[in-house]
């Protein structure tokens, strides 16, 4: 990520206030980190020389050896300073130096009368050194910083303390930061930043703490180090949202479709474990073991907004599988698809003619399908005489469809035996009807379901009208339509 983009994103995430709360074990290089950060990163960007002078006077002291140098929390500078990062990008910067948790073997925490008492900005009374470290860490991170920086060391810096002396204090500081929920970065201070063993230790710490760990020699900080620090910090901010772009055809499926349900279930399960921006890559594994979807592709990552955008595509063949299920017919390739679309387009054109008539049938019991122009047959013009006048008769015929709703009744009257047995059957059928009206159709009667028996009765009546009677009905309806009302029509069936 480009340096300017990092600063732009970090400003967006922090609202323009880059307040670094520097915590961790004593004698790990916290004050040195603050001093170097101000001298090498912040102060070169200041134009006001008097302000630079004032800020130089406020820098914390740092020295080698085991003796604790920071005995009380300190804001550096005392008031946040506005810094230009280029191209109109201004931010306010301030660092807070904490007392720090005790490292085993460090000197200066004990006085002649026991644990040393120190002054803090948040209490009028002095408090024990250990309590100041704990209270300071909590207050600095929760109230006075937008990003936490835990400075620890591998033991290679000139404090004469081994790595093991820092581990317990390091663990306390990190657990406190996690409990507060503030984004933080761990800085492993070392005099050997490029050493393989140092890099191995950093990798081990990342796994142990599930946090970003960067390796720095805090005595010498450059622009690349600041970029690495803020890039790591951006990854620790919350993931605010993930946008998933699906193949457009998936939007045509109902929400309760097995394919859509499986998709949302997989995404919910994967997203529930992603809370930080640095974890978004886990989404690529959302469909591991799934035959329906390919691995999501990360299209856009907005560190400043805390959002990512992924595209999700169905696996090969899933489109035709879903299409077959929705259409109720097998469609396996492009040829099948083209054939079915042609058939369905033809059926759709026919249905469009019937649609209005079918709606009328539902409303009134009677509907008419008006013939189209290409169905009309125009007969030859004929000269006609009426009295002393002559005229020309133009006659056209066209087929029209008349759809009527005819209610058919059917009954099943099983002989089951005694009156008591008949009463028992009625009670059983009534209880089934109350519990689940639809289930009564599946009641077994003489080896067949009630649905099948009633269906046979209905079909029998539908097919019982003789062909001759059908023709008479058609002729009668034709006369009613063509000759109009007002006359007497007698139909003998």
UniProtKB/TrEMBL annotation:
Pfam families: SpoIVA_ATPase (PF09547), SpoIVA_C (PF20439), SpoIVA_middle (PF20438). It is found in: Cytoplasm. Its main location: cytoplasm. Residues 337-364 form a coiled coil. Residues 1-238 form the Stage IV sporulation protein A ATPase domain. Residues 418-493 form the Sporulation stage IV protein A C-terminal domain. It catalyses: ATP + H2O = ADP + phosphate + H(+). Gene3D superfamilies: P-loop containing nucleotide triphosphate hydrolases (3.40.50.300). GO terms for cellular component: cytoplasm. It is an enzyme of class 3 (hydrolase). Its EC number is 3.6.1.-. GO terms for molecular function: ATP binding; ATP hydrolysis activity. ATPase. Has a role at an early stage in the morphogenesis of the spore coat. This is Stage IV sporulation protein A. The lineage of its organism: Bacteria, Bacillati, Bacillota, Clostridia, Candidatus Protoclostridium.
């Amino acid at each position: 990520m480009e340096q300017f983009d990092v600063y732009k994103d970090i400003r967006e995430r922090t609202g323009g206030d880059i307040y670094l709360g520097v915590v961790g074990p004593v004698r790990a290089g916290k004050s040195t980190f603050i001093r170097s950060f101000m001298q090498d990163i912040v102060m070169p960007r200041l134009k006001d020389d008097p302000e630079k002078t004032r800020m130089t006077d406020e820098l914390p002291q740092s020295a080698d050896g085991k003796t604790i140098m920071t005995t009380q929390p300190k804001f550096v500078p005392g008031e946040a300073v506005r810094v230009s990062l280029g191209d109109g990008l201004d931010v306010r910067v301030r660092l807070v130096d904490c007392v720090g948790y005790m490292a085993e073997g460090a000197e200066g925490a004990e006085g002649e009368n026991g644990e040393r008492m120190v002054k803090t900005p948040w209490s009028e009374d002095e408090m024990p050194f250990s309590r100041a470290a704990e209270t300071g860490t909590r207050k600095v991170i929760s109230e006075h910083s937008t990003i936490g920086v835990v400075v620890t060391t591998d033991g290679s810096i000139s404090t004469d303390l081994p790595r093991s002396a820092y581990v317990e204090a390091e663990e306390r500081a990190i657990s406190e930061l996690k409990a507060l929920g503030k984004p933080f970065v761990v800085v492993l201070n070392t005099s050997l930043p490029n050493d393989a063993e140092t890099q191995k230790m950093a990798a081990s710490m990342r796994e142990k703490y599930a946090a970003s760990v960067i390796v720095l020699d805090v005595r010498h900080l450059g622009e690349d180090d600041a970029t690495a620090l803020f890039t790591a910090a951006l990854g620790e901010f919350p993931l605010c949202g993930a946008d998933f772009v699906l193949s457009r055809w998936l939007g045509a499926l109902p929400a309760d479709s097995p394919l859509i349900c499986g998709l949302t279930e997989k995404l919910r399960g994967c997203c529930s474990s992603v809370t930080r921006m640095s974890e978004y890559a886990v989404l690529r594994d959302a469909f591991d073991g799934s035959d329906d979807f390919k691995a999501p592709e990360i299209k856009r990552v907005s560190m400043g907004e805390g959002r990512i955008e992924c595209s999700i595509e169905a696996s090969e063949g899933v489109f035709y599988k879903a299409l077959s299920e929705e259409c109720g017919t097998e469609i396996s390739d492009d040829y099948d698809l083209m054939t079915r679309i042609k058939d369905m387009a033809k059926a759709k054109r026919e249905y469009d003619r019937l649609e209005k008539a079918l709606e009328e049938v539902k409303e009134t019991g009677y509907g008419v399908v008006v013939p189209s122009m290409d169905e009309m047959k125009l007969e030859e013009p004929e000269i006609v005489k009426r009295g002393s006048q002559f005229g020309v008769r133009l006659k056209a015929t066209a087929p029209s469809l008349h759809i009527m709703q005819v209610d058919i009744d059917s009954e099943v009257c099983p002989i089951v035996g005694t009156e008591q047995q008949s009463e028992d059957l009625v009670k059983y059928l009534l209880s089934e009807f109350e519990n689940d009206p639809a289930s009564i159709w599946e009641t077994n009667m003489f080896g067949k379901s009630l649905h099948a028996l009633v269906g046979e009765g209905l079909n029998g009546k539908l097919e019982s009208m003789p062909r001759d009677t059908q023709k008479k009905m058609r002729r009668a309806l034709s006369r009613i339509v063509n000759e109009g009302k007002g006359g007497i029509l007698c139909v003998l069936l």
